[in-house]
Amino acid sequence: MGVLNYLRVKIMTKKVALLIAGCGVYDGAEIYETVLTLLRLDEQNADYQFIAPDKPLAQVINHQTGEEVSDSQPGGAASRNLLVEAARLARGNIIALSAANPADYDAVILPGGFGVAKNFSTFASEGADCSVDSDVQAFVQAFYKAEKPIGLMCITPAITAKLIQPGILCTVGQDAAVEGAMTSMGSLHKSCPVDAIVVDKSHKVISTPAYMLATRITEAKAGIFKLVDKVLEMA
What we know:
Blueprint: H1 3-12, E1 15-19, H2 31-43, E2 47-52, E3 60-61, E4 68-69, H3 82-89, E5 94-96, E6 107-110, H4 114-118, H5 123-126, H6 134-145, E7 150-153, H7 160-163, E8 169-170, H8 176-185, E9 188-189, E10 198-200, E11 205-208, H9 217-234
Helix pairs in contact: 2-9
């Protein structure tokens, strides 16, 4: 590759912040959604950086039994750190949210998983009355204010109104209870099949249901790949 072609590739390469809420569907980031996001970013020759808050997990779930691991038990929530757990999924290539600068990235993508509803917010326990982690909110809103695209999947769009602002069109697929909470917070919800995306062009927010609807990894793949493609297109 010549020098000029090399420089063109470097200039065109987009860098995406991947903000993840731990590791594991029931208390952290959804692993399949995250890996599918990585696969598509790599196929599209995009760079990425894993990012997670450095704080204790709100809850730890035994993924074999579905039962909560209490603070008094080995490996309980009090002894598990969100950044350390997320590093498992990132293969160690991760930085703390406090050290991340939104100006270094062209876009941000948030995979789903119950970690979003438990660690990034209190949506799992409080629904429409939830609050959002202030550091997560500030980081994502910096992309919004800079008019950089934001990709949200699975349960993450449920907190859009408080994570970013009310009035944004997004989707969690076809879940009446979650949709009701979203609209009461001020989001504009659009029903969406698992293999599709919803794009709010004016706000540069792209969402897909992923495992809110998916029953197979190939179903999740279809919508996630479209989301990644659209995020990169709009970046």
